[in-house]
Specification:
The complex is a heterodimer of chains A (311) and B (402). Chain A has 11 helices and 2 strands; from the N terminus they run αααααββαααααα. Chain A is mainly alpha-helical and 311 residues long. Chain A has a two-stranded antiparallel sheet. In chain A, a hairpin with a 3-residue loop joins β1 and β2. The radius of gyration of chain A is 20 Å and the shape is globular. Chain B has 18 helices and 2 strands. In chain B, strands 1-2 form a two-stranded antiparallel sheet. Chain B is mainly α. Helices cover 64% and strands 2% of the residues of chain B. Classes of the chains: A mainly alpha (311), B mainly alpha (402). Chains A and B meet through α5, α9 and α11 of A and α8, α15 and α17 of B. Chain A: Its main location: membrane. Chain A: This is Branched-chain amino acid ABC transporter permease.
């Protein structure tokens, strides 16, 4: 393998790694930017997405946990991956709506710390429910057969097909969400609300419904991320929190409320991880935090964030 | 930061007291309760009696089913939670990265004990200084952004410390295996920590508990002094409204940083004690769950009061270590192993109860956040206040009253 091919492989890997973080971070970022609500339970939405995706796509043998005790094993619909990609976001969208209505809304007027504490507690509860139902063990989320092979690319040579799909799916979704926010009336209200919610309401536009939608869309994105990212790692109740911390970093680096920022931040984090794994694997995880610290010291509002929007 | 003042009682109420229950009838109770001497004395008595009540006293310990080591652990985490609360409860800053100081101090103490000196006092000092120093550095970066960002950044840098210990620094920390080379010498070169205290072993147990208990009392005294100093008043002013504090001419950023450093130093004391306690430093002490645990303890027990977080630490560890071992949830006083048996056949409410302990804690935590922002300690205070009012009106009706 030539040096160029190696470099490109690493970069492509980074793009794939970043894609998952982008999907989770966009939701975090628009919820934080628009609703001024910190959602520490966003990782739990990813968790829900992954388990739902697993159940829709495959049939799994639950050996530990309450589901096994109750005799629901094996469990799963075995409908395949594409239905999961459509069904799961809709379901998690619903979860997001419930969360906005019953968790977030009563806490809009409470201090930030209370919001964080509440969602943190909620994240623990959701994680524990999954641990009790499915046991603490890891499940294997097999890649769909049509995407599990290697694909030949110019210069690089062979590359896992699944990773290209992740990049493609993420790109499509990002474009979709970007269009929704930038080119629709709904997006206009959301963007205006991000800038100055009070002014928008004074102009006679009710914000509670757009807020509900924003939360739902953010949740659905986390759900998609769970389905798409599920096959990459072993599925266990801890994945939610594992994806949450890097996604927060993405938001911090990119800037709150900015979709482009989340994409840029996600790619930067993904690439940093991939490059560090190739160059100095010991330091790979530390690298992203150093990156975040440097960005923060140089540009506290994030790379593409604006000073006014940041809470 | 929100401009809304949070529901917290004023300073006089906050000093709280451990012996509320025993000495309520003292004259000019309010004034006595505020005095530093009383707070420290009451804490000393409580700390001294605690292991006996918890693990050896007749009847009471049968209800608790506690043991000596758990009593020690509760005090250690109590110090941690109390220090954490100096930041959250008094300055209003929510940190999710205190594992960095707890773990950092634990490792620093461990390495110090192996390389330099095994004297427990010096080990604690070394761990604490390391924690305070790292708190200064992390605080400097994290405090560049307030509110939400602060929580996220402390969480992130706490995780960074975890990954640092995991691989790049594995040659010092032992990586995944944790640090195993801890050597702990005798206290003041005389008292071996593993040995029971002569004459008083029925009350205090080992010298280890004496060391931990002594440090705990010292920490309470220091925290109490800080909170009642003008410096502590500034912390509270910042919590209530940091903009206004800034306008008054206070350097808010500097005070926040100092609160963070003080809080980190307390976490350091606790972390060093943990190294002495377990003679081993697990890698998980750096993991963010450790930060999460101390958040839960502080909030559960009650932010904004000195003793609430210690109570929270006790409840958390009790549920984690004792309640999680309960296989079946039975009605009280049924079954053979109770200290008072009404029915020989146990009445089972829930099978496999112990496995739910984390979920239950999570639900209780959410409940406390939503319903009782002042935590269980605040709830007890309210109950006590209600009782006193009830009692007071009864006295009035009888023609007495204050």
């Amino acid at each position: 393998m030539s040096v160029l091919a190696e470099v490109l492989t690493v970069l492509l890997n980074g793009l794939q790694q970043g894609a998952i973080y982008v999907l989770v971070a966009i939701g975090l970022s628009i919820i934080l930017g628009t609703l001024k609500f910190v959602n520490f339970a966003h990782g739990a939405l990813y968790l829900i997405g992954t388990y739902l995706g697993l159940l829709v796509t495959l049939e799994i043998n639950v050996t530990d946990g309450k589901l096994a005790d109750w005799g629901y094993t094996p469990i799963g619909l075995e409908w395949g991956f594409l239905p999961a990609l459509i069904i799961v976001p809709i379901l998690v969208f619903g979860v997001g709506l419930l969360m906005e209505r019953f968790v977030a809304r009563p806490f809009y007027d409470r201090p930030d710390t209370d919001q964080i504490l509440l969602t943190f507690g909620l994240a623990i509860v959701i994680q524990e429910v999954f641990k009790i139902l499915f046991g603490g063990q890891s499940y294997n989320f097999a890649r769909p057969g049509w995407a599990s092979g290697q694909v030949g690319l110019p210069i690089i040579g062979t590359f896992p097909e699944w990773r290209l799909y992740i990049i493609g799916i993420t790109a499509a979704i990002v474009v979709l969400v970007y269009g929704l926010i930038e080119y629709t009336d709904f997006g206009l209200v959301v963007r205006a609300g991000t800038r100055d919610a009070e002014m928008v309401e004074l102009l006679g536009i009710k914000l509670s419904r757009p807020y509900l939608m924003v939360f739902g869309v953010g949740a659905a994105l986390a759900g998609v991320a769970g389905v798409v990212g599920g096959p990459l790692y072993a599925v266990n109740p801890n994945i939610g929190t594992e994806v949450l911390v890097p996604s927060f970093l993405v938001v911090v680096i990119g800037g709150v409320g900015s979709i482009a920022g989340a994409v840029l931040g996600g790619i930067l984090i993904g690439e940093t991880l991939a490059v560090m794994v190739a160059v100095a694997p010991q330091w790979s995880q530390v690298g992203i935090y150093v990156l975040a610290a440097v960005v923060l010291l140089a540009r506290p509002q994030g790379l593409l964030g604006s000073e006014e929007v940041a809470p | 930061m929100s401009d809304e003042p949070t529901e917290t009682p004023d300073a006089a109420e906050e000093t709280g007291s451990v012996v509320d229950r025993t000495q309520r009838e003292l004259p000019s109770w309010e004034r006595v309760r505020e005095s530093e001497l009383f707070v420290v004395g009451a804490t000393t008595v409580a700390v001294a009696v605690f292991p006996w009540l918890f693990s050896r006293a007749p009847v009471v310990s049968g209800v608790f089913r506690g043991y000596q080591d758990l009593a020690t652990l509760i005090l250690i985490w109590g110090i941690f939670a109390m220090g954490f609360n100096l930041l959250l409860g008094y300055t209003g800053l929510l940190s999710f990265g205190h594992a960095a100081f707890w773990g950092g101090a634990a490792y620093a103490a461990g390495v110090f004990s192996a390389q330099v000196s095994s004297s427990p006092i010096l080990v604690i000092l070394a761990g604490t200084s390391f924690a305070a120093l790292s708190a200064w550095i992390l605080g400097f970066i994290s405090l560049r952004r307030g509110g939400i960002y602060f929580a996220i950044l402390t969480l992130a840098f706490g995780q960074m410390a975890y990954y640092m210990a995991l691989s790049p620094l594995a040659w010092i920390t032992g990586g995944e295996n944790g640090f195993t080379g801890v050597r702990i010498g005798a206290l003041f070169g005389v008292f071996d920590l593993r040995y029971p205290v002569p004459m008083l072993d029925w009350l205090l147990g080992t010298w280890k508990y004496v060391l931990v208990g002594g440090v705990a009392v010292l920490c309470v005294a220091v925290a109490n002094r800080i909170l009642h100093s003008p410096y502590g008043m500034v912390f509270r002013a910042i919590r209530e409204n940091d903009q206004r504090a800034e306008f008054v001419g206070l350097n808010v950023w500097r005070y926040k940083l100092m609160a963070f450093v003080i809080s980190g130093a307390f976490a350091g004391v606790a972390g060093s004690l943990y190294t002495i306690y377990s003679a081993y430093v697990p890698l998980s002490s750096f993991y963010w769950t450790t930060s999460g645990e101390v958040v839960i303890m502080a909030v559960l027990g009650g932010v904004g009061s000195l003793f609430g977080p210690i109570l929270g630490a006790g409840i958390y560890l009790y549920v984690e270590n004792i309640v999680s071992g309960i296989q079946q949830l039975t009605l009280p006083f049924t079954g053979p192993n109770e200290w008072l048996t009404l029915v020989e056949e146990p009445v089972v409410l829930l099978d496999g109860f112990g496995a739910y302990w984390h979920l239950i804690l999570g639900l209780v935590f959410v409940g406390v956040v939503v319903l009782f922002p002042r935590g269980i300690w605040g709830l007890l205070q309210d109950l006590g206040g209600a009782l006193r009012r009830l009692g007071g009106s009864a006295v009035n009706r009888l023609g007495g009253g204050r």
